[in-house]
TrEMBL record:
<feature type="binding site">
    <location>
        <position position="342"/>
    </location>
    <ligand>
        <name>Mg(2+)</name>
    </ligand>
</feature>
<keyword id="KW-0479">Metal-binding</keyword>
<keyword id="KW-0460">Magnesium</keyword>
<dbReference type="InterPro" id="IPR005502">
    <property type="entry name" value="Ribosyl_crysJ1"/>
</dbReference>
<dbReference type="GO" id="GO:0046872">
    <property type="term" value="F:metal ion binding"/>
</dbReference>
<feature type="binding site">
    <location>
        <position position="339"/>
    </location>
    <ligand>
        <name>Mg(2+)</name>
    </ligand>
</feature>
<dbReference type="InterPro" id="IPR050792">
    <property type="entry name" value="ADP-ribosylglycohydrolase"/>
</dbReference>
<feature type="binding site">
    <location>
        <position position="100"/>
    </location>
    <ligand>
        <name>Mg(2+)</name>
    </ligand>
</feature>
<feature type="binding site">
    <location>
        <position position="341"/>
    </location>
    <ligand>
        <name>Mg(2+)</name>
    </ligand>
</feature>
<feature type="binding site">
    <location>
        <position position="102"/>
    </location>
    <ligand>
        <name>Mg(2+)</name>
    </ligand>
</feature>
<feature type="compositionally biased region" description="Polar residues">
    <location>
        <begin position="403"/>
        <end position="413"/>
    </location>
</feature>
<dbReference type="Pfam" id="PF03747">
    <property type="entry name" value="ADP_ribosyl_GH"/>
</dbReference>
<protein>
    <submittedName>
        <fullName>Uncharacterized protein</fullName>
    </submittedName>
</protein>
<dbReference type="InterPro" id="IPR036705">
    <property type="entry name" value="Ribosyl_crysJ1_sf"/>
</dbReference>
<feature type="binding site">
    <location>
        <position position="101"/>
    </location>
    <ligand>
        <name>Mg(2+)</name>
    </ligand>
</feature>
<feature type="region of interest" description="Disordered">
    <location>
        <begin position="403"/>
        <end position="462"/>
    </location>
</feature>
<feature type="compositionally biased region" description="Basic and acidic residues">
    <location>
        <begin position="438"/>
        <end position="450"/>
    </location>
</feature>
């Protein structure tokens, strides 16, 4: 086993070059997203595909923000008081345009891809931990909105990091978080995949967009890695396969396929090479085969619940029935009620990838919290995704670990800077509505040593 000092020395050259291109604030800096300054990557005029990439990430955040104030509200409430615009207050007491865990976790995933310049599940879990414990990339500076399954998996990951501390003694938590994936994988008793069978909440789907956006030119890679991105927190095959299927839809949309091709009952068969020899779960296949085609929407059984199959079905229903209008679709998704922000965020990913930036941002783009940062991160996902297509697979590249964490606090080097104005103290919020019982949630979560994890969080099963 290499010492940490040897690992740092081995990666020092890559670290030096990376600090010249991008960095994110340290979690301990507590920099709010709207205070992060971002410069667009060097490129020529914006292409149609880049517009779709930006539209996808922005669509996710807009859907999240539209649904945030009515999260947990039942459909009956929204029939009487439908959401028609961005609005503050409500469930979390946010300002109009602020977003919740859906966008925060997506940005954690994007920051990992951009910092590592490859797919690194250990680094992804580290960043989710930062968000959970320190409010990293949260719109309020705190983790105020988290599902029970996601929380349990992050708590389990924190416990498992104690195994790494035994193998790398006398180093700080910061350095434990910075370990390269290759070194982590040498510790056989450790795994960053903390999801358990039976965990089929919609958490992996709500944060998914950065993976297919980064790998849109490598469809097989995008589909495979989308499934792996789910496994770190959710172990059920339905969750994994829902992410694989939805990633394929996003890749196809970015690459210019028409709406009827995306919603074709034979989409999976027509894109079989993307899924290799792996079959999808029958419940995912049922959705792909058209279970979302219900003209009556809620009256016909479409539900905005936190079970990943229902979320997938509801988002596709909203896309199928939106009359080729993003505003119509995203509001219909929100007004299904219940897990309103996530249903709309999932719709926003696909609709944004299909309709593009202009359609998504025309009404709400400038009102969206930290919208400039979101656009800039999407531009870098597109740029780095293109750069990583040449040479060796980006899954195999050896890149210096955790550059954002190691970047000097007061550094002015790189394309991202920080506004050093002290952020306002974030307000914590509690869920005023009890989460509904989810029969698909496992009866209990267990740590690696077999001990029970207490239930926690705002949404059962997410």
């Amino acid at each position: 086993m290499k010492s940490y000092e040897a690992i740092e020395k081995e990666n020092s050259a890559s670290f030096t070059s990376m600090t010249q291109r991008i960095s994110f604030p340290r979690p301990d800096d507590r920099i709010l997203p709207d205070r992060i300054l971002c410069q667009s990557p060097p490129q020529q005029s914006q292409s149609d595909k880049e517009n779709k990439v930006i539209g996808c990430l922005l669509g996710l955040a807009i859907g999240d923000a539209l649904g945030a104030s009515v999260e947990f509200r039942p459909h009956e409430y929204l029939v009487e008081k439908p959401v028609l615009d961005l609005q503050g207050g409500g469930t979390w007491g946010l300002q109009a345009g602020q977003w919740t865990d859906d966008t925060s976790m997506a940005l954690c995933l994007a920051s990992s891809l951009l910092t590592q310049r490859r797919f690194n599940t250990y680094d992804q879990m580290v960043r989710y931990k930062w968000w959970y414990k320190k409010g990293f990339l949260s719109s309020t500076g705190q983790c105020f909105d988290i599902g029970s399954t996601t929380r349990a998996s992050i708590e389990e990951f924190c416990q498992r990091q104690n195994i790494l501390r035994k193998h790398f003694p006398h180093i700080t938590e910061e350095r434990i978080d910075s370990l390269p994936l290759e070194e982590v994988r040498k510790v056989r008793e450790f795994s960053e995949f903390c999801g358990l069978p039976g965990q089929a909440g919609n958490g992996p789907l709500m944060r998914l967009a950065p993976v297919p956006l980064f790998y849109y030119r490598q469809p097989e890679e995008a589909v495979q890695l989308a499934g792996e991105s789910a496994r770190v927190t959710h172990g059920d095959e339905k969750a994994v396969d829902a992410c694989r299927y939805f990633a394929a839809l996003i890749v196809a949309a970015v690459n210019g396929e028409f709406k009827d091709q995306l919603l074709d009952e034979k989409f999976i068969e027509k894109h079989r090479p993307w899924f290799k020899s792996q079959r999808l779960h029958p419940e995912v296949v049922a959705v792909a085969n058209g279970s979302f085609r219900r003209p009556g929407g809620y009256k016909d059984g479409i539900r905005g619940k936190n079970y990943i199959i229902q979320t997938l079905e509801a988002a596709l229903w909203a896309f199928w029935s939106d009359g080729n209008n993003f505003e119509t679709g995203v509001l219909n998704a929100v007004n299904l009620g219940d897990d309103a922000d996530t249903t709309a965020a999932v719709y926003g990913q696909l609709a944004g990838a299909y309709y593009g930036l202009q359609a998504v941002s025309s009404r709400w783009g400038r009102q969206l919290y930290a919208h400039k940062l979101l656009i800039c991160i999407a531009e870098w996902l597109y740029f780095d995704g293109n750069q990583n297509q040449s040479g060796a697979s980006s899954r195999q590249q050896r890149i210096a670990p955790q550059i954002g964490l190691q970047t000097p606090k007061n550094s002015s080097v790189g394309i991202m800077g920080y506004d050093k104005q002290d952020p306002p103290k974030a307000v914590s919020h509690k869920n005023p509505f009890p989460p509904e019982f989810n029969p698909h949630r496992p009866k209990e979560n267990q740590r690696l040593d077999g001990s029970k994890l207490p239930p926690a969080g705002k949404r059962s099963g997410l």
